[in-house]
Amino acid sequence: MAMAGRLRSGLPFLRQVLTFDTPSAVAAQRCAASKSLLCPLTNTELSRDFATASASTEQKIKVPVTMFGVSGNYASALYIAAVKANVLDKVESELVDLVEASKRSLSFSQFMKDSSVTADTRVKAINEISTQAKFSEITKNFLAVVAENGRLSQLERVVQRFAELTMAHKGEVKVIVTSVIPLPQEEEKELKETLQDMIGQGKKVKVEQKIDPSILGGLVVEFGQKVFDMSIKTRARQMERFLREPVNLE
Fold first, then answer.
1. What is the mean pLDDT of residues 90-97?
2. I need a labelling partner for 82 at 20 to 30 A (CA). Which of 3, 117, 130, 144 fits?
3. Record's superkingdom (predicted)?
4. How many other β-carbons are positioned within 10 Å of the β-carbon of residue 104?
């Protein structure tokens, strides 16, 4: 009961903090994504078009979130191909399953990280896996490109970035809530409502709970580029720094 009370006490403070984070900041982020985007398919590593139809006859697709770096380039290219082929959910499911399978198989995990394996061997192995798993052509072709370019060791990060794009495509916002104990249903509902009010209509909040006893109590809420740390651990550190400051009695 005491722990639930501490969780409940942190929610009004979070609502107060979020009140100052006006929708204009969120709008600015969406505006940035609508600007001229980096086109990953022009990269020499991504020269293969994963879609089977001619790009000239299809509608130009823009990624909902601008991404950078190697993983962002691959994820963006895959997103465009999957949307064109109308297999976004299927591709995401297939890749998530593959990543989870690699975590359960030590030999497969080592194979993906081994840079000494030749490109031909990597591609042949990945093609066999894709065929046995009955992956879609988009997923199969994408994995072949990743294997050929020696990027299998980064596949998990690429899939994470791709998942971010699919969530944005569906209008979903992932919120990670860290607490000492699982968030009670009433507190989770209240937190969702608070975040929903801040984000606005048209977006759906998806809460992922994490348990971390080291924060001692309270909540840590993360979404987008924002982190609201209301943990007892952080408050204790702030108090400690305050108490160590010299006192001016003059």
1. 96
2. 117
3. Eukaryota
4. 8
> Rounded to an integer, what distance in angstroms lies between the CA atom of residue 137 and that of residue 129?
13
Q: What is the pLDDT of residue 162?
A: 95
Q: How far apart are CA 222 and CA 186, in angstroms?
A: 19
Gyration radius of the chain over CA positions: 22
Separation of alpha carbons 63 and 66, rounded Å = 7
The SS3 of residue 172 is strand
Residue 42 tokens, joined? 């022009």
Q: Find how far residue 200's CA is from the centre of its chain.
A: 20
- pLDDT tens column, 145-195: 999 999 999 999 999 999 989 988 988 878 888 998 888 888 888 888 888
> Could you count the other beta carbons within 10 Å of the beta carbon of residue 130?
21
Query: DSSP code of 40?
Result: G
Report which of 197, 192, 198 is spatially closest to residue 21, judged by C-alpha positions. Answer: 198
pTM listed for this prediction: 0.61
**Residue 17 vs residues 11, 98, 180: alpha-carbon distances, Å:** 10, 40, 21
Mean pLDDT, the chain, integer: 78
Give the mean pLDDT of 210-219. Answer: 89
Q: Has residue 9 got a pLDDT over 70?
A: no
Taking the CB of residue 184, how many other CB atoms lie within 10 A of it?
A: 14
- Please, what is the Cα angle at 182 between 177 and 183, to 5 degrees? 60
* Neighbouring residues of 226: CB distance < 8 A, sequence distance ≥ 6: 21
Q: How far apart are CA 60 and CA 37, in angstroms?
A: 12
